[in-house]
Amino acid sequence: MSEKTPAGGNGERSHRMQVVVAVIGVVGTLGTALIANWDKVFGPSGGGAPKPPAVTPGTQGAGSPILSNVTGDVKIQIGSVGSVGSLAAVADVAGRWVSDELTNPYDASWRYVLHFDLRVQGDVVVGSVTQRFTQPREQELSLPVVSGRVDGPTVSFQTRSEVLSGLETRQMTTYYVGTLRDGVLQLTRQNDSPGGGVIEAFAARRP
Question: What are phi and psi of 202, to 5 degrees?
Fold first, then answer.
């Protein structure tokens, strides 16, 4: 008696073959996707946590500085302090300065030259002012500098002296304000005389 092939044998094998092919296709697709997204799943190949994106400070957008609990005006310095637009340098007024020959605004017969000997300690100015008369006769008066300050390119100070006013002697304060420009000290001075002191403007240079 000859053997017979069970009914449906060829169909069952064909079905199994189709399942195997489908599984192989799915595995291949998953493997390709895994390789393409390897760094997203397992991180960069170099190891370690991914670096955050660089942020450049600006005036708008996500990189802008965030300030809280601040009232009033706010100034934000961008760049180094020594960059263009920084505050003016402190005037180098230390040393000796000499004015041209000046005429007394109260009496034209008197002429004189002012000598300044200034020393700077931080933003404080000390020293002396000497007024040397050349006409009608030679004589000089030297007074110490008081309340002297330097603020950027500007210097200010005072001198105090005693003057005869009628039959009384009173103290007089003379105020000096100067600005250093191109190596020349441009100055004004005015005293506190009762009638209002005349403003004198002159230049002083290093001898």
Answer: -160, 170
